[in-house]
Amino acid sequence: MTAELRVLIVDDDFHVAQLHKAYVDAVPGFAALEPVGGGEAALRAVQSLRPDLLLVDVYLPDWNGLDVLRGVDVDAFVLSAAADAESLRKAVRRGALAYLIKPFTQEMLAERLRGYARYRRLLDTDAVLDQEAVSRALRQLSPGNAGAKPRTVTEKAVLEAVTRVPGASTAAEVAAAVGMSRATAQRYLSSLVEEGSVAVALRYGAAGRPEHEYRVRAE
Predict the structure, then answer these.
(1) Are 39 and 30 in contact (CB under 8 A)?
(2) Could you give phi then psi for residue 75, rounded to 5 degrees?
(3) Which one of 2, 44, 102, 169 counts the least CB within 10 Å of its CB?
């Protein structure tokens, strides 16, 4: 995943929408589309612009924003002053990946967006996921939880395989050392890169495409 993630803001308050647009644009890897102010406009914009992520308010002039979630097939956060439990439950039932109560700080939204970017990177694979990979991806969506849980046995084995090599290792070399597929090793290595334990660079050979190489990040 190398392209910027495109974000559509749905909020009928022009000033709030522009503020949130500025918040999104300030986060590396994200680009905010021009905001829209209602549910019908949101549906049209999703169909024509194909955003990666929707940031939708509950209180819209034509629709309840939670009904927008039911009408689109796109990842979404709810950003709203609606602080009742039923709105939260309904948002979760309809697929919201985050729920932020207005007003919130720029850093609070940025933290959620960075977690969403990690979630997307971890799932940017055609390989079959195991339960550890699923759990790690979902943890990225909860602030402060991405690195809170202890390492699994497999994570420790992958990190130890990288640590044992004086120089750098490719995913194939780590896979051979641990005894797993290259695709699985790649997923764990990507996670370690995301949390900052491992650094990644390109290895250029005499011929063919360059490979990613991994080494333990110096303190």
Answers:
(1) no
(2) -60, 145
(3) 2
Residue bearing tokens 């034509």? 62
Q: Going from the N-terminus, what domains does the chain have, and what CATH number goes with each?
A: 5-122 (3.40.50.2300), 150-216 (1.10.10.10)
Please report where in the chains the tokens 């290895």 appear, as a residue: 203
When pLDDT is averaged across residues 149-168 and rounded to a whole number, the result is 85
Q: Supply the DSSP symbol for 36.
A: B
**β-pair type (169-170, 211-216):** antiparallel
With a CB cutoff of 8 Å and minimum separation 6, the contacts of 47 are none
Helix (H, G, I), strand (E, B) or coil at 33: coil
pLDDT tens per residue across span 180-206 = 999 899 889 988 887 767 888 887 766
Q: What is the pLDDT of residues 60-91, one digit of tens each?
A: 999 999 999 998 999 999 999 999 999 999 99
Which position has the token pair 């918040």?
23
